[in-house]
């Protein structure tokens, strides 16, 4: 990888890691569900008029939009608003890789290797350490909401794999149109129209800036740059850079929000990042009876179908809080060789 490309990969990881701090700041200006709805609205407009008509069946756009946009991001924003620290959120969301592998096994019959099972066990141990640390110092309910968000992310990864979108950017933009109205409706029901209107009337440059960052910087720039790198380098070369996301997330939260990082939290970080690396980057095997004909066989999750399976450009997410469809470490390490793959 050229030095400029290497720098771009690190920059994208930094953008996605800092995104959690920006979300935390934004939650000081908006109720969580309203903030999430506005984020998707700003991400979809005006991009939806520039990417052309949907190139994937509407059933997949709707399914991913509801699971990823409404469930995953709704739970994440509510969990962070309920007290889940930004840095810890950036770390805990990494467990989505384990959920993706487990759901792919249950739904698609894909059997993980022993190395991947070891990675899942290590990552779960990290979650246990993080939960014990958070339970002693913070709201465990908020922690559980972010875990649930990671599970929804894993489900959306498998749905995206089944959808196998031929144009990942087109797919992501159209998916971003789906959550807007459901999230607005949920916000009106649970957060109340008075609170929503008060937030909109009090909108200032800082609140607007958080919206621009989470919608355009982490989505348009981050997603576009990551996809550009994946078209020029093997996924096994690009994907490991996403493991820097929680590093930047925890560091930015400590610098800008004053969040402390305890010894157990560093231990949890080491276990989670190591486990996710094993889970996402190790080769996978598949059961012979689960070969999917046609485009459904394309990979877009951390569980690959082997080098012979056709691959589609994966939709990748920054944040764990950015409208990405699949986390960067979920792209297959095999089957992608470079430009045009």
Please tell me about this protein's structure.
With 341 residues, the protein is mainly α. It is built from 14 helices and no strands. It has helices at 3-26, 32-44, 58-81, 86-92, 96-108, 114-137, 140-163, 168-177, 180-190, 193-201, 205-230, 235-238, 245-256, 263-281. The longest helix is centred in the middle third of the chain and has 26 residues, at 205-230. Mean pLDDT is 80; it is low at 286-341.
Topology:
Layout: H1 3-26, H2 32-44, H3 58-81, H4 86-92, H5 96-108, H6 114-137, H7 140-163, H8 168-177, H9 180-190, H10 193-201, H11 205-230, H12 235-238, H13 245-256, H14 263-281
Helix pairs in contact: 1-4, 1-11, 1-13, 2-3, 2-8, 2-9, 2-11, 3-7, 3-8, 4-13, 5-7, 6-14
The structural class is mainly alpha
Shape: globular
Unreliable stretches (pLDDT < 50, length at least 5) are 286-341
**What would you report as the Rg, rounded to the nearest angstrom?**
19 Å
Count of individual beta strands: 0
In helices, the fraction of residues equals 55-70%
Number of helices: 14
Strand content: under 5%
> Average pLDDT, to the nearest integer?
80
Q: Span from first to last CA?
A: 17 Å
What can be said about the biggest beta sheet?
Answer: none
Helix/strand order, N-terminal first: HHHHHHHHHHHHHH
Short characterization:
This protein is mostly helical and 341 residues long. The chain has helices at residues 3-26, 32-44, 58-81, 86-92, 96-108, 114-137, 140-163, 168-177, 180-190, 193-201, 205-230, 235-238, 245-256, 263-281.
């Amino acid at each position: 990888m050229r030095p400029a490309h290497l720098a771009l990969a690190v920059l994208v990881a930094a953008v996605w890691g800092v995104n959690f701090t920006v979300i935390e700041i934004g939650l000081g200006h908006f109720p969580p569900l309203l903030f999430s709805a506005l984020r998707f609205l700003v991400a979809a407009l005006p991009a939806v008029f520039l990417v052309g008509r949907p190139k994937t069946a509407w059933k997949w756009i709707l399914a991913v939009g509801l699971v990823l946009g409404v469930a995953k991001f709704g739970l994440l924003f509510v969990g962070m608003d309920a007290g889940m620290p930004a840095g810890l959120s950036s770390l805990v969301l990494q467990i989505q890789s384990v959920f993706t592998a487990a759901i792919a096994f249950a739904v698609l019959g894909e059997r993980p290797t022993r190395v991947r099972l070891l990675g899942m066990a290590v990552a779960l141990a990290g979650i246990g350490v993080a939960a014990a640390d958070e339970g002693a110092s913070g709201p465990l309910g908020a922690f559980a909401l972010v875990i649930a968000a990671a599970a929804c992310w894993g489900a959306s990864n498998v749905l995206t794999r089944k959808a196998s979108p031929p144009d990942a950017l087109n797919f992501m933009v159209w998916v971003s149109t789906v959550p807007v109205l459901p999230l607005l409706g949920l916000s009106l029901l649970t957060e109340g129209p008075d609170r929503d209107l008060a937030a909109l009337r009090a909108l200032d440059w800082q609140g607007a800036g958080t919206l621009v960052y989470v919608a355009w910087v982490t989505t348009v720039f981050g997603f576009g740059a990551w996809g550009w790198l994946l078209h020029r380098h093997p996924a096994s070369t690009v994907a490991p850079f996403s493991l820097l996301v929680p590093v930047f997330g925890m560091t930015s939260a400590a610098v800008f929000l004053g969040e402390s990082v305890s010894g157990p939290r560093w231990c949890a970080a080491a276990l989670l990042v190591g486990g996710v690396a094993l889970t996402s980057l190790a080769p996978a095997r598949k059961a012979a009876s689960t070969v999917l004909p046609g485009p459904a066989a394309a990979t877009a999750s951390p569980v690959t179908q082997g080098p012979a399976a056709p691959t589609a450009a994966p939709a990748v997410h920054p944040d764990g809080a950015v409208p990405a469809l699949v986390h960067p470490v979920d792209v297959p390490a095999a089957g992608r060789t470079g430009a045009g793959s």
